[in-house]
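Anyone up for a design puzzle?
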């Protein structure tokens, strides 16, 4: 449809959109896409928006004062650290919002943006505070695992992340199914080499070592509705956040 469109710019909000999807829409429609972030409680869309340099979302700081806090203690975190986005509405009347906790996780960046705008930026929303896991002191989101696994064409999108304690240390094992094609053509060697490649990439991308079990197609339980991707058998609430 790109020839019949007189659109130049699309502003997209409400649902998280990956960089890949943004680029695909941009390419197919021949327009520029800017992703927008907002919350109903803060007045809807327009809290922040991507600029043409695509290096984060500029926060409209004349209306919203941003902070990033540790989701557990509520203490402010320095710029660049992942934490919960918190906004104070500066111009809202009748229903003021002070230090409103969004439950969305991102980083703040106040370094100058190549586009010339001086408003602070936040990075893409990495997940919800409810989704964040802390493994051996490292913040980890199931969505990171999903991106990693989906990049392997030998793997099917069926996996479970299992967390446990081994000698008081967090241990992570991921059960993931391979595709029927890969399974049909497998040998001990191809399975092992795929497993070690995934393990290496995971350590590089996520920051700690974990084990991967490659399973036969259809071996994980399917559930109706939202699948259970995380099985956390550790005891304390602090580990799970
Ligand atoms: Zn910019």
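Challenge accepted. My sequence:
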């Amino acid at each position: 449809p790109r020839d019949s469109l007189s659109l130049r710019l699309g502003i997209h909000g409400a649902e998280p959109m990956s960089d890949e999807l943004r680029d695909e829409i941009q390419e197919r429609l021949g327009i520029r896409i800017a992703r927008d972030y907002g919350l109903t409680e803060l007045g809807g869309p327009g809290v922040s928006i991507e600029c043409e340099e695509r290096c984060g979302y500029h926060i409209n700081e004349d209306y919203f004062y941003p902070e990033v806090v540790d989701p557990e203690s509520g203490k402010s975190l320095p710029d660049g650290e992942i934490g919960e986005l918190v906004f104070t509405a500066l111009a809202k009347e009748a229903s003021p919002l002070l230090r409103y906790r969004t439950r969305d996780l991102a980083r703040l960046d106040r370094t100058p943006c190549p586009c010339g705008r001086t408003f602070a930026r936040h990075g893409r929303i990495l997940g919800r505070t409810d989704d964040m896991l802390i493994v051996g002191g490292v913040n980890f989101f199931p969505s990171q695992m999903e991106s990693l696994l989906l990049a392997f064409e030998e793997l099917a999108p069926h996996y479970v992340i299992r967390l446990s304690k081994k000698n008081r240390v967090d241990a992570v094992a991921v059960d993931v199914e391979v595709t029927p094609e890969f399974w049909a053509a497998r040998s001990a060697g191809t399975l092992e080499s795929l497993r070690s490649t995934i393990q290496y990439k995971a350590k590089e991308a996520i920051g700690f070592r974990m084990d991967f079990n490659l399973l036969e197609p259809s071996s994980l339980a399917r559930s109706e509705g939202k699948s259970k991707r995380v099985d956390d058998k550790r005891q304390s609430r602090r580990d799970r956040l």
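A detail worth pointing out: The two ends are 47 Å apart (CA to CA).
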